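Need residues for this backbone.
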């Protein structure tokens, strides 16, 4: 960040919301930010657009350059969103679909095939409602496809530029292809974007940065939406208008682990800058077919660059199999970062796409699906399977963790009660906004791409209000009950928010760790009650891991440079040979001693949590850690427990399965 801009409204806003992001997310890792040009015009192209207003905030937090994002004018017209968007130099874009109006009458097409682009109306007024270069938008039951109108013959007849992309053939037969019933529709006016393109060009000419989501709107799907050509017009148009201007295009991949959940994780990866070929600029200047081909070629390069920094899959089942393969492939003894996990998932996705027709790959895919089904039957996660074989030792770990959960619940209770009203309101409002978003979109499955945004916005507004209210109540109590004077009341007004923040921070940290531990209890219970019943699952996992390693070794060298020599591998061959710790208690400890030491370790761990929030008790934290250092951290497996979050898919939840399968069937 340039020093001259350190106190500008732009950077003040970015820093303010960066603090909010740090609270909402447990961890955001960035990769390859050093590849971003430090000066000159840059266009950041970001995908997938899975988290509405949070997506640009994540990029602004990590890109290090002042960047103005293209934002829907409809959103910027909302006071608070517009205020922040204008502060961070956003560029408003009028989207045609935001101006759509219900069309009069109903429309139908003749299914004879003789004139596939002709659209007819029943009680319609095409000549009055449809303007030059306007479009017809189908209703959501038919797929909400929007097609430009080429010519208008009469109030009841017009010609389309292309055929509609129909989502449901059966629904279309009953409505769109029926001259009796017809289908409802909307009329979309043509929007002149010349002012927006001019603003972008001027910003690039001045050496500035522009951010754009080429998919258009946000969504919660597993694959990219079709990329729009606007980004290519911006880059090629600016370079064509200003010879000598070198615009760099930086692909940005946003990869979330549950984008709508509080204290989830994310990885933002910046790809290598794309240098625009000057031949494409010359072709762009020629116009016509040459211009279209130049835009198409550049858009294809952008698409490939975005695929290289994200993980996508054609459907839910494939995405689940890829994530399961990653979990099985990584040895328990190997600790890697979220970014490295993302890399492994990306490699498995590429390998499946390249070799999915091979018998070995198909066999592995089916066995992984079966393994996932068994995990669902037992209600546990992959990383918990090994703990089902601890035998009597599981009772020790289970007792220790139960004590931890109770103790952490007590520590988290004050802050949790303070934040409970905010959480309930944020949850309710975000759920309502998700319903509204889904109802108004043809691409959203559940509307979860807006949940995280509204949780952040609502919380950012309610937290100051709630803390001010709590502080005011405390001041009143101190005055009426304890007779505080002016000095005492001023100190109360200063220290009460600080104490409230401390309670909240402790609640967040102890709460998230406590919930992670709660999630680890079920396999321990199974291990105590009937450890032999889980033996087939453990055996299946071991066999499946060996099969996966064998398949990876066979096909890996074909797609990963340096795989055979080990240089291109994240997991080295020797990592598979390393003996993983099984979560059992090590050292010469008796049963009772282990339980007592486990309890005292909990005290030290909780003290450390508070010490992370405030330095006032730092010395006490150090003493407790020294006193109980002989109890190994592996006894409680903090990092192992917290990895459960990453066992899930990036964009989906379990109840999405049927909707995705239906969507695929209707496609």
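Answer:
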């Amino acid at each position: 960040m340039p020093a001259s801009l350190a106190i500008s409204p732009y950077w003040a806003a970015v820093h303010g919301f960066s603090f909010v992001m740090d609270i909402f997310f447990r961890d955001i890792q960035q990769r390859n930010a050093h590849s971003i040009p430090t000066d000159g015009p840059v266009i950041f192209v970001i995908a997938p657009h899975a988290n509405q207003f949070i997506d640009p905030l994540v990029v602004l937090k990590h890109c290090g350059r002042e960047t103005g994002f293209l934002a829907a004018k409809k959103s910027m017209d909302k006071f608070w969103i517009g205020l922040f968007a204008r502060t961070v130099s956003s560029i408003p874009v009028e989207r045609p679909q935001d101006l759509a109006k219900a069309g009069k009458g109903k429309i139908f097409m003749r299914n004879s095939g003789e004139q596939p682009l002709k659209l007819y109306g029943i009680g319609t007024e095409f000549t009055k409602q449809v303007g030059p270069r306007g479009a017809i938008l189908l209703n959501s039951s038919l797929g909400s496809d929007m097609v430009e109108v080429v010519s208008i013959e009469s109030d009841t007849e017009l010609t389309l530029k292309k055929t509609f992309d129909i989502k449901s053939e059966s629904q279309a037969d009953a409505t769109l292809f029926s001259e009796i019933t017809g289908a409802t529709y909307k009329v979309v006016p043509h929007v002149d974007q010349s002012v927006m393109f001019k603003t972008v060009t001027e910003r690039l000419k001045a050496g500035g940065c522009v951010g754009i989501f080429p998919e258009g709107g946000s969504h919660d799907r597993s694959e990219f939406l079709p990329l729009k050509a606007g980004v290519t017009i911006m880059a090629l148009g600016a370079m064509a208008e200003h010879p000598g201007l070198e615009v760099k295009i930086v692909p940005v991949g946003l990869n979330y682990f549950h984008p709508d959940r509080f204290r989830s994780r994310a990885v933002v990866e910046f790809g290598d800058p794309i240098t625009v070929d000057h031949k494409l600029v010359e072709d762009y200047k020629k116009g016509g077919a040459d211009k279209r081909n130049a835009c198409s070629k550049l858009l294809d390069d952008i698409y490939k660059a975005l695929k290289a920094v994200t993980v996508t899959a054609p459907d839910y089942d494939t995405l689940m199999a890829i994530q399961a393969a990653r979990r099985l492939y990584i040895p328990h003894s190997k600790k890697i970062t979220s970014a490295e996990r993302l890399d492994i998932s990306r490699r498995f996705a590429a390998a499946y796409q390249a070799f999915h027709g091979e018998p070995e790959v198909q066999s592995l895919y089916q066995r992984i699906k079966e393994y996932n089904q068994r995990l669902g039957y037992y209600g546990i996660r992959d990383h918990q399977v090994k703990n089902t074989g601890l035998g009597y030792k599981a009772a020790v770990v289970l007792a220790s963790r139960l004590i931890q959960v109770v103790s952490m619940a007590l520590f988290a209770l004050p802050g949790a009660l303070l934040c409970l009203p905010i959480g309930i309101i944020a949850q309710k409002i975000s759920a309502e906004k998700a319903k509204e978003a889904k109802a108004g979109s043809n691409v959203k499955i559940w509307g979860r791409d807006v949940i995280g945004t509204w949780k952040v916005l609502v919380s950012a507004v309610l937290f100051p209000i709630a803390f001010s209210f709590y502080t005011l109540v405390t001041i009143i109590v101190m005055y009426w009950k304890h007779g505080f004077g002016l000095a005492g009341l001023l100190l109360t007004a200063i220290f009460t928010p600080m104490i409230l923040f401390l309670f909240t921070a402790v609640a967040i940290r102890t709460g998230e760790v406590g919930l992670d531990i709660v999630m680890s209890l079920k396999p321990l219970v199974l291990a105590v009650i009937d450890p032999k019943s889980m033996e087939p699952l453990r055996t299946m996992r071991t066999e499946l891991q060996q099969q996966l390693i064998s398949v990876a070794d066979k096909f890996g060298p074909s797609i990963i440079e340096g795989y055979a020599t080990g240089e291109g591998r994240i997991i080295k061959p020797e990592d598979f040979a390393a003996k993983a710790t099984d979560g059992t208690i090590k050292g010469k400890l008796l049963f009772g001693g282990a339980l007592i030491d486990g309890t005292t370790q909990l005290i030290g761990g909780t003290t450390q949590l508070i010490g992370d929030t405030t330095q006032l008790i730092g010395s006490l934290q150090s003493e407790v850690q020294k006193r109980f250092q002989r109890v190994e951290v592996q006894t409680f497996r903090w990092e192992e427990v917290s990895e459960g979050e990453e066992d899930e898919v990036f964009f989906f939840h379990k109840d999405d399965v049927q909707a995705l399968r239906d969507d695929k069937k209707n496609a």
